[in-house]
Design brief:
two-stranded antiparallel sheet; 11-stranded parallel sheet; alpha/beta; elongated
Amino acid sequence: MTDRRLSLAHHGLGAVGMKALSYSLMNNTFILALDLEDNWLCGEGGEYAAAMLKENCYITELNLANNKLGSVGCAAICRVLHANVTLRNIDMSGNDLSDKDSQTIAEAFQENNILKYVNLSHNGFGSTDSKLLADAISENETIEHLDLSWNNFRLKSATCICNGIATNGRIRVVNLAMNGLGNEGAFGVAEILKQSGTIAHIDVSHNRIGTTGATVIGKALEGNDLLKTLKIGQNPLGVEGAKSILKGIMPEASCVVELDLTEVVVDKEFRSLKQELLASRAVAIAHGPVLEDFVIQIKRKPPTTLFGTPISELTSENIMTSLKKYCDVNNIEIYDALFSYDVINDRMLVADIVKALSDVGVSLRVAEAEVLSRLLEGHTTGDGLVDISSLKI
């Protein structure tokens, strides 16, 4: 009890053991870091831990991970955080917390101006509404390291929590791994990269982010000069998505020194881009296997028309009009077919438009598909996606 750090992790204390320990710690002036992980404290034990913290003004680090605290224990700890002036780091991961506890945690975040490290991973946040938690994160002025990995942030809740992080003026490290953010959440991650003036490390690995999401994040990276570490591996980014991310950190202004694309398959072009980047500055880049390119180039006769219109008359400005006219004349419902692919707010990848045309019976020769892709590339918006709203019936 005279050491600076006391570890009682995995000791099976339970509520009764925590009660006995709390009396010993209330007036202890030596221990600064207390590890109580995995002791099945439950709600009652959480209340005893809170009572101890009310009296002890020396503990700066507290690990309560995997203790089944639930709403009762969470509420007790959060009440203490309103007035505690010494606790800097707290780990409440794996404690059966959910959105119903958001208000309690949000109020603690808004009142507390001491915490710097907060771990709420391995809980159930994000299943319903995350606005309260997101607003509290946005307004907090002290937290620098926030771990929200292994929760349920997806779709609307993913966008909400990302916006909260993006508008926070202090957080430097954020972990959103294993949340199922998907392409919808990738737009939120892009906003973090665009708006935040502090984020230096971000982990969004294992989040079902596809090529569309990777393209959006890649565009956001191009204008970011603060980020140092990006972990986005174990996602179905695709070869093109991986290249979008890599191109995003190519500018000289980029400060990224670590890019984790673990298990993401890349191609020879990616490898060439990586070598080009490494020749200019040191960056640790991890990725999956490199696909070998065995494509045989065949000379093809260039097409003269596309969708019944001479190629010479088609431009990036009128290609969508020509495509819609062709579909209308031939009773092709192309707009509906596009939604079998990644479509977010009437925007999607060029390659997916070509695939959708094939799905509805418009088989383009390779040369025709190349012309269409080139014209559509010139029709993309700022995030690299094509606006398909003009194709509506």
